[in-house]
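Following up on my earlier thread - several people asked me to post the actual chain instead of describing it. Fair enough. Here it is, all 236 residues.
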Amino acid sequence: MISSLGSIFLATFLVTSAVNAEPKQPSFGYLWDQTCNADGKVEKTSRAYTPREGDILLFDDMSPFWAKLYSIAGTGPPFHAGIVFKKTDGSFAVLESGPDDTLHVYLLDLEPRLYNFKGSIGVRQAKRALTKDESEILTNFAYAQEGKRYAMWRLLLQGTYFRHRGGIKEKHLAATYDDRTRWLCAEIVVSAGALVNLLDRDKVKATVTYPLDMVDDVRIDLSATYEPTVYWSSQK
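Reply from S.P.:
Thanks for posting it. Predicted structure:
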């Protein structure tokens, strides 16, 4: 016969084992909405971030170097962008070209990416869920791009006459490609979004889109398929 003390230890062991056996649920932090009340004052409210495939993440590391370089190209922060997709195991990740000043395309698990980034993150959520086929297309596209090079020379050209952005060159030369050997960060986001019908490739041209263009709907209007940009936080 098991003693009373032994029963307590056994019960505690079983409960602890059951808790430890449960998989840890990822925490994706919070999104902060800003609205104006009747008095014209800005009110902030937070809600849990529930990721959706196709969400656009906009990163700003507050770098003076990138601020200067982007100003030459006639734009500004945020300096980087990525798009959320599902890995083959069903977990959320971010497809990014050149994250954190690197020179390749990476597939980064979403939860640690959000919490480890040093800077601010804007989130533009997709208004609808992808279909099963669209989800597979986005996943396959992401894996096919992994390891490719960041298009550093094309980035440098953005500050020169040879870029396609603006005027008649943009009208005739700007394009959205389904595949490239090298990618700029916003370029790969737009191409991925176009493949799954979240972005209109005839209206949003990947080769002339910068991260700042996706923050609001001034230069390109994403409001049909994307919510307004809100800021991410690790705290409620």
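The first helix runs from residue 4 to 21. That should answer part of your original question.
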